[in-house]
């Protein structure tokens, strides 16, 4: 099965993303429009997924491995999703905004 990919350049700065990283990674820095559901909790929290009527939901982790697994599984469940190519490292590298509760955001 081919995993749908979306390049960072095709994702609006304030797009709604699904971030499947762990809590400490999320706390260190995340996209401003992201929804946080760690990969291990995804099957039990499907009702919290953002509405994708507007199009494909980009799924992100640090580098793309966990989000690829999430996209494969979510696609099998009928969701319109794509892996954010390069993950949060690519997001940060493209100069996109990061936010964190601590004020100083970085990709962990």
Automatic annotation (TrEMBL):
Top-level taxonomic group: Bacteria
Matches recorded under InterPro entries: GlpE_sulfurtransferase, Rhodanese-like_dom, Rhodanese-like_dom_sf
PROSITE patterns given in the database record: RHODANESE_3 (PS50206)
SUPFAM superfamilies according to UniProt: Rhodanese/Cell cycle control phosphatase
Domain Rhodanese: start-end pairs: 11-100
A Pfam family hit: Rhodanese
Name of the molecule in the record: Rhodanese-like domain-containing protein
Organism the protein comes from: Pedococcus bigeumensis
